Amino acid sequence: MNLREEQQRMLGLLKNGSPGQVADPLLMEKLEFQRTIIVWWRCFQFEHWLILSSKLLKDQHLLEPLVMKLYQQHNISSYPAEAGEQFVEYILQQPISPLIKSVAMLELALIKLKDPGHLTEHRIRWNTSPFPFLDALLKGREYSLEDENNVAYEMVVSNQISGKIMVNALV
Amino acid sequence: METVDPLAQAFTESVPKAPVSMCFSYDLYRPQLFEAILPVVDAIEICPDTISYSKGGKIFLEERILEQLQSVNKDKKIFIHGVGLSIGSYDEMSSNYLYLLDELFEKLKITWQSEHLAYCQVDGQNLNTMLAVPRTEEMLDLLTTRVLDLKKRYDVPFLLENIANILPAQRYEYSLPVFLNKLHQSSGCGFILDIYNLECDEHNYDISLEDHIATLDLQAVKEIHIAGGTTEQNMKLDIHSRKVSDRTLQLTEQVLTKNSGVEVLTFELLPEAYSLYEPGEISEHIDEIKRRLSLV
Q1: Global pTM?
Q2: Contact yes or no for B142 and A3 at CB 8 A
Q3: Which residues of A touch B125 (CB under 8 A)?
Q4: Mean pLDDT by 10 residues, chain B (296 residues)
């Protein structure tokens, strides 16, 4: 096996290695552990960048499985902000509560708004009244991921709005 | 077997050594911490990957940290210590990382730069970790060419650091210290001796720390890294999240008493761990390290 083959093999094993692919049980065990560390580390970074989305996913026992799948299926950037954005895009494609997706979009929008030159307007749909929900989340109170019946809101997040955030009820 | 002339050894061990500078890894904009460490360090080590961010597909250095570094660059040495160069990748080194180096060398006076003896990307895919390079002639040739290119491109010394291994070694023709010595001879690279990483390898794979230190050409070691970390599933991890342990300091002291080329001792603390300690606690720990190792 030459150097290219060896490194490509290690990439494949780390990303998608299954027990049958490696004869050496020690290597298999440590590969599993290495993946655990990679995912743990990524979760730790996402918890730093996307505080509320990560909390919601953790509460639903979804954070680690989703990060593992992201690692296996995508080329995660080594830059935390870019990786955070990749994770939000990944979350949006998953069959999970729309409320978690709304929170993830909000957090991503707020990160982007830190740049005063960012003038894009972000429009986020919510199936529940966002402020009471976010308040409960921030204060560690009980919250529900159930949709409010027949209610929808649109949150506009923009550097061009005084206070950055505006919410309108949709009829 | 190599014989040592006791008189020559006694002489080299009695030669006064240049003072060792104290350094801290500063990679996150924390003005209070920056102010707290400045009086207790002679140098600052930065990680280009960590002090940069990506926007619209482009990579930028964090301006606020750059300004802090520029403001002290006259009095404090600045070292670059990367994680993203991927010097051991079979195809190429990271072009993003080289771009960051170009920017840093343009904006700061850099005393030397270093990287881990590892690869972290394959075919442009980020492994999200660093893996050890095979210690073969083929790798030796590849690394020699790249080290020589880096030294020529930036005109400062280039050091390589031993990583801590989670995976067992796959194939090698040489032991790690012999491989490093050969690389030093062929490329002129120096070394960072990461004592804590060696402790991890000792704990996880029973490598002999003493043999490593005895075999390594200590004259080529320009910097020592120390840190504290954690153990998970009986594996000691190089997560630099804790203060330096007594044993790490004892081992460091042993190396410092030998005839080595060590000029700098760096206490590494991950930016994610800064919040675990008050800024004053970190500077006190650095002071304690200096006292314990008679660097003051």
Answers
A1: 0.90
A2: yes
A3: 11, 15, 75
A4: 49 60 95 97 96 84 95 97 97 95 97 98 96 95 98 98 92 91 98 97 94 97 97 92 96 95 97 93 97 91
**What does the alpha-carbon distance between residue B2 and residue B76 come to, in Å, rounded to a whole number?**
41
Can you read off the two tokens belonging to residue A79?
């830059």
Q: What is the distance between the alpha carbons of residues A82 and B56, in angstroms, rounded to a whole number?
A: 9
Structure tokens at B83: 């994680």
Predicted-complex ipTM score: 0.88
A112-164 pLDDT, tens per residue? 898 888 999 999 999 999 999 999 999 999 999 987 777 899 999 999 999 99
Under 8 Å CB pairs connecting chains A and B tally to: 82
Instruction: Specify the 3-state DSSP secondary structure of A168.
Output: strand
Query: Among A10, A36, A79, A86, which would you mutate to test the B interface (most chain B Cβ atoms within 10 Å of its Cβ)?
Result: A79
